Amino acid sequence: MQDMLDKIHEECGVFGIYDNDDMGVVESAYMALYALQHRGQESCGIAVNDDGVISSYRDLGLVSDVFKQETLERLGNGKMALGHCLYGTAESNKRENAQPMPFRHVKGQMAIANNGSILNALDLREKLEMQGAIFHSTSDAELIAHMITRERLTSKSIEDAICNAMDKLYGVYSLLVMSPRKLIGVRDPLGLRPLSIGKYKDSYVLASETSAIDSVGAHFLRDVKPGEIVIIDENGLRSIEKHCGQKSHLCVFEFVYNARPDSVIEGTSVHLARQKMGEFLAKDHPVEADLVMGVPDSGNDAALGYANASGIPYGTGLLKNKYIGRTFILNTQKQRENAVRIKLNAIADAVRGKRIVLVDDSIVRGTTSMRIVKMLREAGAREVHMRIASPPFRYPCYFGTDIDSPERLIANNMTIEEIGHKIGVDTLGFLSLEDIVNVAEKSDCEFCTGCFSGVYPLNVENAGKVSKFDRKFSENID
Amino acid sequence: MQDMLDKIHEECGVFGIYDNDDMGVVESAYMALYALQHRGQESCGIAVNDDGVISSYRDLGLVSDVFKQETLERLGNGKMALGHCLYGTAESNKRENAQPMPFRHVKGQMAIANNGSILNALDLREKLEMQGAIFHSTSDAELIAHMITRERLTSKSIEDAICNAMDKLYGVYSLLVMSPRKLIGVRDPLGLRPLSIGKYKDSYVLASETSAIDSVGAHFLRDVKPGEIVIIDENGLRSIEKHCGQKSHLCVFEFVYNARPDSVIEGTSVHLARQKMGEFLAKDHPVEADLVMGVPDSGNDAALGYANASGIPYGTGLLKNKYIGRTFILNTQKQRENAVRIKLNAIADAVRGKRIVLVDDSIVRGTTSMRIVKMLREAGAREVHMRIASPPFRYPCYFGTDIDSPERLIANNMTIEEIGHKIGVDTLGFLSLEDIVNVAEKSDCEFCTGCFSGVYPLNVENAGKVSKFDRKFSENID
Amino acid sequence: MQDMLDKIHEECGVFGIYDNDDMGVVESAYMALYALQHRGQESCGIAVNDDGVISSYRDLGLVSDVFKQETLERLGNGKMALGHCLYGTAESNKRENAQPMPFRHVKGQMAIANNGSILNALDLREKLEMQGAIFHSTSDAELIAHMITRERLTSKSIEDAICNAMDKLYGVYSLLVMSPRKLIGVRDPLGLRPLSIGKYKDSYVLASETSAIDSVGAHFLRDVKPGEIVIIDENGLRSIEKHCGQKSHLCVFEFVYNARPDSVIEGTSVHLARQKMGEFLAKDHPVEADLVMGVPDSGNDAALGYANASGIPYGTGLLKNKYIGRTFILNTQKQRENAVRIKLNAIADAVRGKRIVLVDDSIVRGTTSMRIVKMLREAGAREVHMRIASPPFRYPCYFGTDIDSPERLIANNMTIEEIGHKIGVDTLGFLSLEDIVNVAEKSDCEFCTGCFSGVYPLNVENAGKVSKFDRKFSENID
Amino acid sequence: MQDMLDKIHEECGVFGIYDNDDMGVVESAYMALYALQHRGQESCGIAVNDDGVISSYRDLGLVSDVFKQETLERLGNGKMALGHCLYGTAESNKRENAQPMPFRHVKGQMAIANNGSILNALDLREKLEMQGAIFHSTSDAELIAHMITRERLTSKSIEDAICNAMDKLYGVYSLLVMSPRKLIGVRDPLGLRPLSIGKYKDSYVLASETSAIDSVGAHFLRDVKPGEIVIIDENGLRSIEKHCGQKSHLCVFEFVYNARPDSVIEGTSVHLARQKMGEFLAKDHPVEADLVMGVPDSGNDAALGYANASGIPYGTGLLKNKYIGRTFILNTQKQRENAVRIKLNAIADAVRGKRIVLVDDSIVRGTTSMRIVKMLREAGAREVHMRIASPPFRYPCYFGTDIDSPERLIANNMTIEEIGHKIGVDTLGFLSLEDIVNVAEKSDCEFCTGCFSGVYPLNVENAGKVSKFDRKFSENID
Q1: Active-site positions of A?
Q2: Which of B53, B134, B472 minimises the CB distance to D53?
Q3: Burial of C377 (0-12, 13-18, 19+ CB in 10 A)
Q4: Is D244 a catalytic residue?
Q5: D105 contacts in B (CB within 8 Å)?
Q6: Which position has the higher pLDDT, D332 or D426?
Q7: Sign of the alpha-carbon torsion through B228, B234, B235, B237
Q8: Cβ pair C132:A105 closer than 8 A
């Protein structure tokens, strides 16, 4: 079990642009990466396509660290670009795993950016290695590049090659491919990760979230369908639907936490979906109180929903320090105890003497919740009723979201009552599994709730196996 | 007039600690600077006092840029420390103007950190120069260091020297002085800038805002009184009240914008004061609408107050990108037009078809407001009613807040009706001068409203004059 | 012709260690890279093998820029390491071309470091691409990795795979391969580039030059033979000599310029070889003069030889600024004119009134020589007789040395008399082709003199062809 | 004694330019700093004077680290500039001690750059402090700024103020002052440190060494006389000679080590002076040998002189790694042992079987010499006869050269015979005190030989006293 969890989980944001209107592909990719930064903060990159010659830059760090004026300028310009930001486990945070991944093959230069997790990756890698393939990274993106390249040898076009490669790739992917003349977007047949199409005059963009489409001044056109291959070239946009047919099984955690509130996924506003979660919580876990407040920023929308549905006033009782970011570096025991305080502070006059409904998006180990509750009580809160806008985490995610190891998940070790006692609240309520799949009423999609239910839309038996070559000496090698 | 505005305006945060409990003076100053970062983002510094030997580091940049692990470690440790962050005009943003400013004089090593503006600075500098003084910076802090040092020659203690220097310094200051054995806090006789005292066991801290006191785990004790000199040494805390007697004339802009919502100034919660502003706005400028929302983050509290008082639901309709920070660098015309969009994005599903009350803290030139309103209309807002939680800016501030030059202030060039038309709102309402001085009912303080009213609590006739030596060749120099 | 010259020329230094004596593989590689820095200053890297798990770091820049304490520590430790430094053309100076190049294949992790130039690279790449291979760089090292990996599928050991790959690789290579359990060194059948073996107790090192062997405290054992494969593992050192049999055709420019004077190649001290060049020059181009001096540093050894052979006193007349390094950045016209002056300065009192023999290693375009001569004359030199310790450059090098394009070589456009007139000397003499191959009398090796003679020991007909995919749009790609 | 040695020793390079010919003052200062870098490698700076408004930048680090394109551009342009590089003790290496030091006083903006050591610094500082002065650094430059500024109050010009200040400053100084309209150079009455004047068309430069004059394309005009004040302004150059009259007592260590060989000081070429030292050594300490070689780079010139005088052939037997610079960072015991080997390597074929005369400029502790000798013997040298181009170090320098503490000087603990035995040479010879003062025959100057003889041209009784405030708690301070 633990072995499987060591697999590289990647939460990512992808962006692609085919520019017919002088939007500026580098500037657009750069702005879009800022709009997608919340999806991956370990590494990022941009690849630019100038009539088939691809320039790229990628490195560990935030967009603001990696891309300075000079680096952006050196990327030149072109008709297409890809952008990518990535969150990976400590182990996978190496420069060579950063994307977009540029490479050359028999038909020219290409670049790939992916958000997802290929479940049969190890099998595919081993088969390729048996044919002499070499790998420079441990990223699925490189594996996909190999798979497409092999198919390209016998396919009449890059899109056909991708279509054929999809027959062999089993797993989750929202994938962008930039060939010399085409920008191609692909979503796996179950559509676990989002991928949307935007348009500005005669130009197209593809992005993990609509917030990135907004950021470049384009408007949302439609989502890429589960299984669809979207091809954008000088003739405009067309698609291959050979792998389509199934409903989207969107990762419900996109609504809970991953996506930005201003994004719209599968037709549903993330902001409204979160308000809805709060409404469900108000219905299922009502309580008499004076104030509803969220743990900023991710709990605010559901708190608003709870307030509206319950009639209890909404307010602000915690302030988040916006300068801390990823820069906090002191690492003494004493400072760790202070860590929550430097990131969050109670607004004492807002909570003193009040009975508070505190809404958060989820609970993992419970330690942060415990400290926040303590902070509110010290600031004079009379009662604290915690409401969580998702069901308890109990199972691993094999599809790219990095949840803690099962044995550290507080919900695997305690009953809800025990959890409430541990974190020091008066009452505690979670969103039910029944409710969470109803937050996007208008969408005609289903949801993957694996991390909450243990029921997965894909066979995860072989997921996450790692190569023996990632360990020290094994047999038969020289 | 313009000449005066060229004076260096400094908005700052100051912090000092006298540590009797092994809190760690460097760690504390570092955390406090994060909690005060909103008060000054151009430069920052820390000075540590180890039994009379002062080590310090200061540079241009954010706390997270200037202080890395290694720099903090090299500061060593001691019983006292000062911290400072500064916002200055482009001209004054030089390393030598950063604080705390360390120096040596006849009685040993010292350091000074100040938030304020000395109105008779030029006169005092010229007098000192006539006696042979040299200056390494254009900062008031250096001037104050000279003034105290001169007085120290004939005073029996550092606190007496400060007390005597106050007779000659005319203006605004919340000042911290660290002598070999003492930590001293001073507030000008009208108390225009805040300065609070915190306590943790046997240790004391002094800070511009209570949020910084919270950040180091101490609790708020009381504000330094206008004109008070607070001395902390091995005998604890005592004070000199020779310059006390007048009520605080606190800068009301501290409540409008400068201070953090979780701070408490002169007994009033900033958060609640801002809610109050919203309540006043609801009373004075009512409107029929579907949703009240703030321009994040600074308009949110007043929006909440407006919503509560008006009964119109509160909601979120704009999302702020938390990764942009100060790192956005593209500077093409095209990008500038996009600038608001990359920082803020409308949540279309939250505003579509709605009549919106949009609350912001203030309007300077009006261009940002114009773009936000346009963004909301493009997202489908039916009506936009703007409410501003302060009166119109019409006058310069001579006391440290950097308001734009009078001729660029939209309120100096247009009627309120014209402004509303320019920025494209259906209705526009400002907080009245009468109301703004009532946001802190419980406080027994008065307010400086100079930037709104043109009425100042200090004589500003000579304020802001600059030395002829800051210009190219003048007469009589070789 | 020009097309061919656009090929990536790589001058490199390689280093490998198999450590049985706790020498410290990272420290050793780091020190060796300093000793090899003169062979490549554009990028560098180190790869460490810890029981089959390879950690590596490589980047653009000098060793002192790329490797800081923290980076070295993060490499961990192990029993083997490779080091590499590279000089490439502007075009090839990309991070992905830096070496050692780590990768994974069917038998585990590997790393490769190479000095050379594969002449049939394009053919081999195209064949591999036709089989589905993808490339992440334009480096021969990656191509070699592919070739070895393919052979490994049908070979019983890594050394056999290398041996088989050598049948297909046509060109120049001094190659190091680090497999999970073995350190392997290979030299092409003509041995155009040097590669030496060192020993320290039970440990072995392989390096481009003996100076690197000295730098880690080991002693020189012997050169790798042309065509030899040297395998070092837990059983010690053994070799495969299937491709041996031909005499070394060492690049003579290694003696002229590339190698460090303290290195010994093919049994000949570089320092003594350069003195010998000076002796030949004295014999062939005698002149009456007062002082012999070198253009520092590369002309000094030959100047010493000239002085000894001619009886004219040796001296120093030019001082080289040792702080300029690669850091000189001003790029105005005016500064370029000053460029020689800031790097070199005449010692006027040493040259005034003297008849000078000025010895340099080679002349490319002649502009630098012209400025140096002018500087000496301005400092009062009465006569300047230039002696060049190599024949005139007239032909391209296809084997890794980056000589200027033929049409810019002064010797292709002028007679020796005209050159002398252009650079302003009284007399000018070059080393003859006959002499240069006699600088290493004791060696039983031949020399490649291609750049001087146009006669190459390998068929260069197809050398340097570049892929059509390195240019913008060509036919048939999508 | 030890207390005195803790005083800040500063070896520095200074440069000033008054540009009437569009030479570019920033570019010139930048180039000159490269030419003076050997005189101080801890910090550096440039100050530019644009019609009385001074811009400056200074920081810790080498010229190549501190000044990048952007920093140079931000300095703007003007008619005058100062440049400075500094070597200080670990303690004084703080950014605030870097020069040129800019400041403002009653007559405008100024900047100061100094090379020297004020012996009565503490007395002067204490007197100033008693009058209320404050200090931001521990640098003599700041003290001098105060002294001049005080005098300026009652003097009719800046040059008169400097002249009057000289009455009170006791010690060593080669000082540059840049006032709004004048560039002024000053040398102390004994002229212990060099200062030369250069000219290019109608422009003037002042520099510590003539190599810096050469570097900007100007020609040497003359040295500033001991005690002379040279004033350059729109009327050209004039001087005040009130403090003139004594012969120069130049620090003889300038010839031994400090200065660049291509510089000319007091009419004598440093290069020729060093050759002369070698000639004296050959005369006083003859030996039968096969090869004379220097420890590079500083021993080479004297080695040449020894070779010429003795008739023994000159050669190269040690190679210095030019990439190590100041960047070597590994700090393990093992690496320290290797430290000499990575910096220097023996050219075995040049020394094997030979009887060698090894010439170095000086011996401090002897450990480096010991390692070099060992390295030569391991490379096969038959005999090693060491010759040192200076007398043994036995006394402290109070005038700016940082010699080790007396108890660590090998010559204070051993006889010359014992030293020879310790470092492992066959014979050892030092230059005599008699000879060293004769290396500059043509000069009409005397020499300070304090570090060798203990006889100083100035009273050093009070030299080097440090303020009690530099230590932890002393009496009477608060």
Answers
A1: 12
A2: B472
A3: middle
A4: no
A5: 129, 132-135
A6: D426
A7: positive
A8: yes
Contact assignment for B132 to D105 by CB distance below 8 Å: yes
**Is A376 within 8 Å of A317 (Cβ atoms)?**
yes
| pLDDT over 90 (residue D148) | yes
CB pair distance less than 8 Å for D473 and B51: yes
Mutate to test the interface with C, among D33, D216, D262 (most CBs of C within 10 A): D262
Q: Chain B to chain D, count of Cβ pairs less than 8 Å apart?
A: 131
Please tell me the number of Cα atoms within 13 Å of D252 on its side-chain side.
31
Is the distance from CB of D171 to CB of D122 less than 8 angstroms? no
Q: Environment class of residue C111 by beta-carbon count within 10 Å: exposed (0-12), middle (13-18) or buried (19+)? A: buried
d(CA D200, CA D206): 12
* C464 to chain D, closest Cα gap in Å: 31
d(CA D250, CA D265) in angstroms, rounded, equals 9
Measure in Å the smallest separation between the Cα of A375 and chain C Cα atoms. Answer: 38
Q: What DSSP letter does each residue of C11-63 carry, written as one string?
A: EEEEEEEE-SS---HHHHHHHHHHHHGGG--SEEEEEEEETTEEEEEEEES-H
Are the beta carbons of B153 and D133 separated by less than 8 Å? no
ipTM of the complex, rounded to two decimals: 0.92
Answer whether B105 sits within 8 Å of D133, measured CB to CB.
yes
C348 phi, psi to nearest 5 deg: -55, -45
Give the C-alpha distances (Å, rounded to integers) separating C108 from A126, A130, A477, B336, D353.
Answer: 11, 12, 7, 51, 50
And the tokens for B361? 């803290």
Residue D478: CA count within 13 A, CB half-sphere? 16
- pLDDT at res. D404: 73
B84 contacts B101 by C-beta, under 8 angstroms: no
Tell me how crowded residue C181 is: count the other CB atoms within 10 A of its CB.
17
Give the whole-angstrom CA distance, residue A287 versus residue A427.
9
Q: Name the maximum alpha-carbon separation found in chain A.
A: 73
A148 to chain C, minimum CA–CA distance in Å? Answer: 9
Alpha-carbon span B213 to B28, nearest angstrom:
10
pLDDT digits (tens, 9 = 90+) for A42-93: 999 999 999 999 999 999 999 998 998 889 999 999 999 999 999 876 667 7
Question: Of the candidates C190, C183, C185, which has an alpha carbon nearest to the alpha carbon of residue C227?
Answer: C190
Decide if B316 and A271 are in contact by the 8 Å CB cutoff: yes
Structure tokens at D28: 């010139």
Q: What is the pLDDT of residues A281-303, one digit of tens each?
A: 999 999 999 999 999 999 999 99
Chains adjacent to B (≥3 CB pairs closer than 8 angstroms): A, D
Question: Under 8 Å CB-to-CB from B432, ≥6 apart: which residues?
Answer: B280, B284, B391
pLDDT 10s digits, A147-188: 999 999 999 999 999 999 999 999 999 999 999 999 999 999
CA angle B220, B48, B180 (to 5 degrees): 95
Q: Do chains D and B touch (3 or more CB pairs under 8 A)?
A: yes
CA distance C282 to D338: 39
> Among candidates B359, B238, B216, B346, which has minimal Cα distance to B298?
B359
Q: How many C-beta neighbours within 10 Å does residue D427 have? A: 17
| Contact partners, residue D209, CB within 8 Å, separation at least 6 | D13, D35, D36, D39, D194, D196, D259, D260, D263, D265
Q: Among candidates D245, D270, D248, which has minimal Cα distance to D39?
A: D270
Q: Which residues of D touch B (CB under 8 A)?
A: 50-53, 101-109, 126, 129-136, 145-146, 149-150, 152-153, 157-158, 179-182, 233, 467, 469-474, 476-478
Enzyme catalytic residues of C: 12
The answer to whether the peptide bond before residue D180 is cis (omega within 30 degrees of 0) is no
Give chain D's end-to-end CA distance (angstroms, integer).
30
Nearest CA to A355 out of A383, A327, A333, A330 is that of: A383
- Does residue C284 contact residue D226 with C-beta atoms inside 8 Å? no
